[in-house]
């Protein structure tokens, strides 16, 4: 273990400049982003229960304007309408857990290096520490699981103190290079049925995020 | 200040890109998916037993609590 009690290399307190510009509230657009990340995190962490499926069936995707997100919401709604919890549990099992391993391996280090628990995970742990995030003792999943990263993004986006540039930095370093590919794989996975729609939503949303976070205004 | 979170151009972009997501997100929130809580908005209720939607579980709450920005 690293000596975590040592002085942090970077202070947690924001500089005077960033404090001055810090927002005190999260706007509705950022709230929406945080919600989408939270939803993706939820759906990737465990198969949805009936309550969530029922909510997904109520989605109103809005007018078809060629808008990619609207189409993805529409297909998620349809997938939820067809879905049954027992079948989704089996699907989830086959996709992500399997015997030995599932059809997909939803970890950043796997996608980036071809191995689990590699350097990207070590760097992620450093960065999480820098944000002040601590791992729960009863959580055994490595932090670079796609679900954990979506949940982390949700936390980051919904914290008004965290500047845009730090969101961008975290996204670029830990999600940007691989998660879109993972969602793409999900849309094409043999075992996927309901999760195809999840993959599509994730794929589209990450495209939006990439474009949004790279905006230099 | 380019680093400012609230920026009209970025906001406009998001409005366009997330079109159609508003109602979807409202539905999701009703299904037990909660984004990380804002500091001031403490949850009024504990998650229902047996429900497995992403809720503000002890885990998430703890995770958030330990975040010191």
Q: TL;DR of this structure?
A:
Chain A has 217 residues and is an all-alpha fold. Helices cover 62% and strands 0% of the residues of chain A.
Sum up the structure in keywords.
heterodimer, A: mainly alpha, TorD-like, 62% helix, B: 69 residues, mainly alpha, 41% helix, 0% strand, disordered C terminus
Helix and strand arrangement:
The complex is a heterodimer of chains A (217) and B (69).
Chain A: H1 16-21, H2 28-45, H3 50-57, H4 68-82, H5 85-97, H6 108-113, H7 119-131, H8 146-157, H9 164-176, H10 179-188, H11 194-213
Helix pairs in contact in A: 2-8, 3-4, 4-11, 8-9, 10-11
Chain B: H1 8-17, H2 21-30, H3 58-65
The biggest sheet of chain A, with number of strands, parallel, antiparallel or mixed sense and barrel status, is: none
Percent range of helical residues of chain B: 40-55%
Instruction: Give the termini separation of chain A.
Output: 41 Å
* H and E order of chain A: HHHHHHHHHHH
User: Can you give the mean pLDDT of chain B?
Assistant: 58
What does this structure look like?
The complex is a heterodimer of chains A (217) and B (69). Chain A contains eleven helices and no strands. Chain A is mostly helical. Chain A is globular, with a radius of gyration of 18 Å. With 69 residues, chain B is mainly alpha-helical. Chain B has one domain (8-65). Chain B has helices at residues 8-17, 21-30, 58-65. Chain B is elongated and about 30 Å long. The model of chain B is unreliable at 37-69 (pLDDT under 50). The interface between A and B is large, with 69 and 48 residues.
């Amino acid at each position: 273990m690293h000596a975590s009690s040592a002085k942090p290399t970077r202070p947690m307190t924001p500089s005077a400049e960033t404090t001055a510009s810090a927002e005190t509230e999260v706007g509705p657009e950022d709230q929406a982003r945080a919600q989408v990340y939270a939803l993706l995190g939820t759906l990737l962490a465990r198969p949805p229960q009936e309550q969530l499926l029922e909510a997904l069936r109520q989605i109103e995707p809005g007018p078809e304007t060629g808008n990619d997100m609207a189409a993805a919401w529409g297909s998620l709604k349809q997938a939820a309408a067809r879905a049954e919890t027992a079948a989704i549990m089996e699907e989830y099992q086959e996709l992500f857990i399997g015997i030995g391993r599932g059809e997909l391996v939803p970890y950043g280090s796997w996608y980036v290096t071809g191995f689990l628990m590699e350097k990207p995970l070590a760097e992620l742990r450093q960065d999480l520490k820098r944000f002040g995030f601590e791992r729960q003792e009863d959580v055994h999943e490595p932090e670079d699981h796609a679900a954990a990263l979506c949940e982390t993004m949700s936390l980051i986006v919904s914290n008004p103190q965290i500047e845009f540039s730090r969101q961008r930095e975290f996204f670029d370093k830990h999600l940007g290079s691989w998660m879109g590919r993972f969602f793409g794989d999900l849309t094409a996975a043999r075992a996927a049925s309901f999760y195809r729609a999840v993959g599509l939503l994730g794929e589209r949303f990450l495209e939006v995020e990439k474009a949004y976070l790279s905006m230099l205004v | 200040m380019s680093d400012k979170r609230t920026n009209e151009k970025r906001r406009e972009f998001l409005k366009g890109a997330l079109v159609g997501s508003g109602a979807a997100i409202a539905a999701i929130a009703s299904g037990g998916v909660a984004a990380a809580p804002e500091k001031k908005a403490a949850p009024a209720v504990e998650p229902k037993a047996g429900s497995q939607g992403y809720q503000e579980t002890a885990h998430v709450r703890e995770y958030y609590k330990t975040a010191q920005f």
